[in-house]
Every structure is written in structure tokens, then in C-alpha cells.
Amino acid sequence: MSDPIKLSLAEARDALKAKKISAVELTQAYVDEVEAGAGLNAYVLPTAEHALNMAKASDAKLARGEGGALEGLPLGVKDLFCTEGVRTTACSHILVGFVPPYESHVTSNLWRDGAVMLGKLNNDEFAMGSSNETSYYGSVINPWRRAGDTTPLVPGGSSGGSSAAVAARMCLAATATDTGGSIRQPAAFTGTVGIKPTYGRCSRWGIVAFASSLDQAGPITRDVRDAAIMLGSMAGYDPQDATSVDRPVPDYELALGQSLKGLSVGIPKEYRVDGMSSEIDALWDKGIEWLKAAGAVIKEVSLPHTKYALPTYYIVAPAECSSNLARYDGVRYGLRVEGSDITDMYEKTRAEGFGDEVRRRVLMGTYVLSAGYYDAYYLKAQKVRSLIAHDFIKAFADVDVLLTPTAPSAAFGIGENSDDPLAMYLNDVFTVTVNLAGLPGISVPAGLSSQGLPLGLQLIGRTFDEETLFKAAYAIEEAAGVQPAPAAWWKA
Which of 121, 272, 445, 453 has the fewest Cβ atoms surrounding its Cβ within 10 A? Predict the structure, then answer.
């Protein structure tokens, strides 16, 4: 096979089963790509030897006519997922040298189905960021560039390593997590597909926690079919996670190509925000026309509490992070900075171990949970969160899915927004509502900006109705046509 990295995950799966290529050959091709793309900083820990050993085991299974749904397929793993015997740091200095003695439930499912681990992928520290600039290991560089411009761009965040690696053909697909848009926004910035499933569809056990009521795992892939295949393996009930929902996982791939005739698509009027790029607005209108042409019925809907989503999110998420990150104190694992007494040791360890953005969110979270402010901020935010969820329930009484933009702009330059936290937080304006309501959402590449950068459209569905999302997303993908890959300038 001339160039195996051009194969999609589905194509590689079929090629392995047909013995047109071996798992070792496929994995070696990706190991070479990871080495060639080191300048993008997508991987914080390549595991080439481990990957090739897994590939050899897959070849043995395939030779016997055995193997799982992902047998021999090389994947990247976000550094938020604990991997037994392989360093996991959440890209934070405070977890330096931490090697988990256990495996996350999601990655256990992937290895059960035969997938191969190429290494650990970069992410914003503790998943706190929208551009992958807060990682202790440095910024990830988007493989895309503006036309005629060599300015390095962000790949989105927090799953920027995942989105960059998939876009640069440095893995077939990658695991990611989404707390306020951290799968969908980076997918939009890199011309990839990212789905955040319903809260509870994928186990959170073994994933380093940011905000426990919002975090959800999902895949970033090259196309919708690959996303359906990946989610089928990642999802499933886990008794170790109290928020995991015990219900069957459908064969999502079967939903692809089904007719959209009679499907009702809602267009939330509140998502046409001031200052949104005219290109994003035009792309949204194009997406409406594509779905209409495929047989869908378009309806305008109202989500009146959308304007409160960002402030609500940036109260709830920091509050939960301040609680979750209290465990990192230098006593049991990770970084330890000695002090004159135990309190001094705590203070020095946390001051040196956490980056600026993490400290900012911990301080905000501690403030809104403190006596005298809990009712004014945190309790009020939870009430507004309920109103946002109710808006969606009301909308889904009339429509089957919602169509919105994924992000308010294309990818921006590294450093352009890093000194303005509020500008950075606005990147999540179209995505945070989905997490607050626990709904599934998917981003699909739908075109390029005038500067040649990817733009994405988002579909939002009812709880546990990922099948309808995949059906509608596939229709958008078909209408948009084959999207170009970034020019491999990093290999020059």
C-alpha cells in the first residue's frame, strides 16, 4: 500500500481485515509521522515501542481471524486519560512523573477492541483553556496556516493536541474531553470531526477531573463515519462511575446515510450574536440550505437564557475545579516543594505546580463557593443552569436537532488572545450550553474561510440521541464535499 496514512479509520479497518496491510506496517507509518511532526508539539509522550508491540499482538489476532472493532488501528490519547504504566500528567507540572497504576475506562474499552496507542497528546493544563496555550509542555501548533501567512495558529483547546494530531495525519483518531466545547471547538479549528456525547454516555473513571458535572469524553476523527466507529468503542456503562448511564450503545455507523426526510431542524435565534464573523453567518445559512435540500424541515426556535450561559459556565466550572484540584498538594504523588511546615509545603507546591490559568480558575472557584458568596454566585448559577436545560427541553418538543456554528471565528494566532481571558472565554459561546444541559453535540467541517482556514458547523441533539446527530452530520459532510487536508509544511 503506497501511503497508508491517507486511509481513514474505516478504510484502515477494512484494509487490515482484508490483509492488504499489516498492523505493524500501519503503526510504523504513524510512528514515522509522529517523529516528522514533532515541531507541532501535539504529542507530549510518544510511545513508539509500546505501539509496535500492540500492533504485533493485533497482527497475531488478525491472522487467526480474530480481533475487535478497532484491531490494529493506531490512536492518540489525550494526556487527561490515565494509562496504566504510561506517564499521565494532564499537562501540568504538579503531576510531573506521575505513572498511573490503572487504566481509564474509556481507554480500556479501546484496548479491549484492539486499538494501538501511539502516545499521549498535549492539552491545556487540566483541560483549562480554549487554545492549547496553557500546557506545561508548551503550545500546540495548528497544522493549518492562513493563506500566504506563516503565523503559527492555535489548534483550539483544550484538546488541541488531539485535533492537531488528527488533522496532521499523526494518528487515525484521538480521544478527547469536552467540558465547555473542548472537543467541538478544536475540531472546528482544524477541519476535523468532534463529538461530545451525552453526559453519562462515556465513563469519566480514570480521566483527570476538571469540572465533574460537565466533563465528558469523546473522539476527534477525520470524518463522521470514523467518529461513529470510535464512539461505539469508547461508550458504555461503567459501575465505577456513578454518573455513567446503564443503557445499550447503538451501532452508530448504521445511522449514516439514512434519509433526513421529515427531520425537524431548529435554528436558535439567540445564536446570531453581535460581532460574529460574516463568514460564520454565511456558513450557517449554507448549512441550513444543505439540510433543507436533504429533506429536513427548518424551524426557528428560541433559547432565551443562552445569554447567561457563559457567566453561568464560568462560575460552575471554576467552582468544581477548585474542589477537584484540592487533591494536588505534594503529599501523595507528583510535584513536591519542601517548606518550613506542611502548610508552607502545600502553598509552595501549588504555587509552582499550577500555571496561571489554573490558578485563576481555582481562585475564582474558591471565591464563589466561599461563605457570603455561595448564594449570590454559585447557587444562582445552578438555578440559571436549570433554566438553560429547560430551554432545550422546550425546543426539542418541536424539533429533532439544532444547527448552530461551532465557534465564532476561525483559528487565531498563538498569543493573540492569551493576555485577554475574556476574549478567550468567548470562544466557547456556542458550545457551553450543551455541557450545561448534558446534551450531545457534534462539530463537522463545512468549509474554509477567506484565509483558507477550516470552519465548522455544530449539531445539538436530545439526550442519548447521538444516532440522529450522526445522521444529520453525515448529510452535512456529504453536502460540503471532501474537505482539503493542511499542506504538510512542518515536514519541510
Answer: 272
How many C-beta atoms lie closer than 10 Å to residue 205's C-beta?
19
Residue 358 lies in a domain: no
Q: Say if 79 falls within a structural domain.
A: yes
Identify the pLDDT of residue 379.
Answer: 96
Average pLDDT over residues 229-234: 98
* Three-class SS state of 15: helix
Would you place residue 2 in the very low, low, confident or very high pLDDT band (cuts 50, 70, 90)?
confident
Average pLDDT value for residue range 61-79: 97
Q: Are 140 and 189 in contact (CB under 8 A)?
A: no
* The total number of structural domains that make up the chain: 1
pLDDT at 428 (0 to 100): 86
Distance CA 409, CA 189 (A): 9
| Number of other residues whose CB lies within 10 A of the CB of residue 300 | 9
**Termini Cα distance of the chain:** 24
313-335 pLDDT, tens digit per residue, is 999 999 999 999 999 999 999 99
- Decide if 147 is inside a domain: yes
Burial of residue 149 (CB within 10 Å: 0-12, 13-18, 19+) is exposed
β 441-448/193-196 pair status: antiparallel
Range(s) of the domain holding residue 135: 4-263+398-491
Active site residues: 78, 158, 182
Three cell numbers, residue 360: 485563576
Q: Decide the pairing of beta strands 74-78 and 193-196.
A: unpaired
What mean pLDDT is predicted for residues 3-9? 96
Per the CB < 8 A criterion, the answer to whether 55 and 72 are in contact is: yes
CA distance 48 to 27: 9
CA distances from 43 to 13, 241, 299, 321, 443 (A): 23, 28, 43, 25, 23
- Rounded to whole angstroms, the Cα distance separating 219 from 163 reads 10
Confirm whether 270 is domain-assigned.
Answer: no
Q: Which positions ≥6 away from 177 have C-beta within 8 Å?
A: 78, 80, 123, 127, 158, 159, 183, 207, 210, 215, 216, 217, 218
> Could you give the percent of the chain with pLDDT greater than 90?
95
CATH value at residue 65: 3.90.1300.10
